[in-house]
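Dear colleagues,

As part of the handover before I leave the project, I'm documenting each prediction I ran so the next person doesn't have to rerun anything. This entry is a single chain, and its sequence is reproduced below.
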Amino acid sequence: MSMKTVELLRRVLVYGLLIAGSIVFIMPLAWLLSTSLKGDTGLFQIPPQWIPETFHWDNYRKAVETFPFFRYTLNTVFITVMSMIGAMLSSSYVAYAFAKLRWPGRDVWFVIFLATMMLPGQVTMIPLFILFKKLGWVDTYLPLIVPYYFGSAFYIFLMRQFFLTIPKDLSEAAKMDGSSELYTWWRIFLPLSMPALATLGIFTFTLTWNDFLGPLIYLSNPDDFTLALGLRGFQQQYGTRWNVMMAASLLVMLPTLVLFFFFQRYFIEGVTLTGVKG
């Protein structure tokens, strides 16, 4: 066989595997959408009906009206936006210190800092709750937002790897012009690191928007609930109405899908560039 034929077969095989994998991952989402548009009589039809004969768009209206959807959405947006701001600012600032500043024990402390990633969240859950309880932060949004303003080991590692790809000449030129380290980080490195910041923002958005355990532990006032907690309460009360339940679930996860769809280029670029230089 010629080289062109071999290359063609290789591409067909690769694209075939990719398409098959995409279908496998898309099927649950397609079934979620299909179920959300069905009536009460077509949920358990055998064989399964992927395209309903009649689209019941009122399932989405029922899902929104059954629990305080818009109130919980505002609560979730507030927590998510504040967490994203804290994560991007604090993690990028610490990453700049690890990547561009020279200070004693920098590499040792960076290794120790990365070692904290091996601690599962269940280990620190009780000590953190006791700390926030003594601070009087329980039943507020502070335990869900403030930790992001102290950086995250994974986010700092991500930003540090990206900062290492930025030439030293830029920071040295800024110092020669009398720029401080804070000014250099804010006016030079942050604008150049938008792909990495977009990746960090998507990670933070997904984590906080879908977070269920944190609000479950620290929030007790129903008016302060997030969408994840509201969806859980909706499931407990209306779990047998799967069509309305699937409509509510799709509405909750829709912002995450839209965000990734529009920013996937920056997400892929940020993840790729952070592995260029170690």
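The domain at 64-273 is CATH 1.10.3720.10 (MetI-like fold). The CA atoms of residues 62 and 70 lie 13 Å apart.

All the best with the project,
I.
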